[in-house]
Amino acid sequence: MIGKLVFCFFLFPCFVFILHVFLRDRRKTHAKAKLPPGSMGWPYIGETLQLYSQNPNIFFASKQKRYGEIFKTHILGCPCVMLAGPEAARFVLGTQAHLFKPTYPRSKERLIGPSALFFHQGEYHTRVRKLVRASLFPEAIGKMAPHVESLALSVLDSWNFGRVINTFHEMKKFSFEVGVLAIFGNLEGHYREQLRKDYCIMDRGYNSYPTNIPGTSYRKAVFARRRMSKILTDIISERKEKRLLDKDLLGLLLNSQDECGDVLNLEQISDNIIGVLFAAQDTTASVMTWILKYLHDNPKLLEAVKAEQEAIRRSNQEESKSLSQAQIRQMPLTNKVVLETLRMASIISFTFREAMADVEYKGYLIPKGWKVMPLFRNIHHNPDYFIDPEKFDPSRFEVAPKHNTFMPFGSGIHSCPGNELAKLEMLVLIHHLVTKFRWEVVGSENGIQYGPFPVPSNGLPARFWKESPIPGQCGCA
Ligand code: HEM
């Protein structure tokens, strides 16, 4: 009885009062802050058609011109706030990252696997990210370098003799092999081949309309993903039997224990392996395709890069000697070409987050549940930060870009842990490409295709010929 009285006369009124204060404060936030400028388009479809009927970058750039660095829109059924300034990107991805969670369409999450780190926030994300980063520490990358070089040479040799190849597809083969190397170390050929086949089917389905109707690319991808899980289970059982304590990503995932001694389960390991393969392949392949295009379109620059790389080649007394870490670090012009390509192509034009609470930014309200998109490309192409931004000019990187204006690998707690490996792949490939091959782009199309990252039209068809070394120049003549 006394309990009931305490509840009626004390606890219940207290609860009502606290709720009232909470709601009043929430209303106050709403009252003070207004939604950013912009247009929400038509009911339900919003501005989806405007976005997809043209180059998305034109859509974003025209909005920024009209409304400024923060604006609202409505795409694919979701209200969104877009952020085109470096400070705002840092706010969402860095300083206030705890207020925004990563968000991906369910269909994509289902294919990659819901336990992959980039779908998560908090303890689980921190734990897996530490392992991924450890597998990609400079020491680990140093050990991988000679193998990356052999892979680069073997892919380049397969392009010889002037037949037309799809550069992007070939780059994908290379970046896939490097991804496999980083995850498994030396994986047996038959496993690699099975994984490659099913990964290709999954990759095609990832970018298709997500419907489970038999015969569609998406459904084929779902089945390929299941087969990949089975292959990974076999690889993992074999690794466990052999009790190998390798320091590649699989080894680190298998041997990880949290404070309570809990290990990661099979699904968590598989999803993260496929997640890393996925994050590593198209990204790096797209950038490498752009590098070839920009070098081809700028013959003087290509000559200068060749001169830099020939000097390194000459300093390697024997023709077959691998590039040393010191040599890879000492490629100042080539390194700037890589940076400028990352800026110009901005292959990850933006990323998605979702506000987990009402958030106020510079007097604007970002309502809970709205998608938030930092627009990397707009920042990289803003003349306030990069003079004459549409010009391919590696020399601009002689001076470091202003803080937070150059984010090809993202920023904050979800930034790319594979950035150093990606740069290594590109530098090694350029070294062998320019010192041993000449190439010619086929066709004069200058367009861009999205799949989903931007790449030159038709994957940049090109012909390659191996050049015989100039006598006396390679140190072996
Ligand atoms: C040029 C090539 C690459 C580019 C431009 C790139 C770009 C990015 C960007 C922008 C993000 C952050 C996305 C976001 O905040 O939503 C990211 C995340 C990630 N990248 Fe890369 N990436 C590249 C290559 C790689 C490679 C080679 C690997 C692995 C070997 C890799 C693994 C990852 C992973 C695992 C994440 C998720 C990190 C997390 O959520 O904590 N990436 N990448």
UniProtKB/TrEMBL annotation:
CDD domains: CYP90-like. It is found in: Membrane. One of its GO terms (cellular component) is membrane. The chain crosses the membrane at residues 6-23. It catalyses: 2-cis-(+)-abscisate + reduced [NADPH--hemoprotein reductase] + O2 = (+)-8'-hydroxyabscisate + oxidized [NADPH--hemoprotein reductase] + H2O + H(+). This is (+)-abscisic acid 8'-hydroxylase. Its main location: membrane. Pathway: Plant hormone degradation; abscisic acid degradation. InterPro entries: Cyt_P450, Cyt_P450_CS, Cyt_P450_E_grp-I, Cyt_P450_sf. GO terms for molecular function: (+)-abscisic acid 8'-hydroxylase activity; heme binding; iron ion binding. Its EC number is 1.14.14.137. Heme binds at residue 416. Belongs to the cytochrome P450 family. It is a single-pass membrane protein. Keywords: Heme, Iron, Membrane, Metal-binding, Monooxygenase, Oxidoreductase, Transmembrane, Transmembrane helix. It is an enzyme of class 1 (oxidoreductase). It comes from the Eukaryota. Its cofactor is heme.
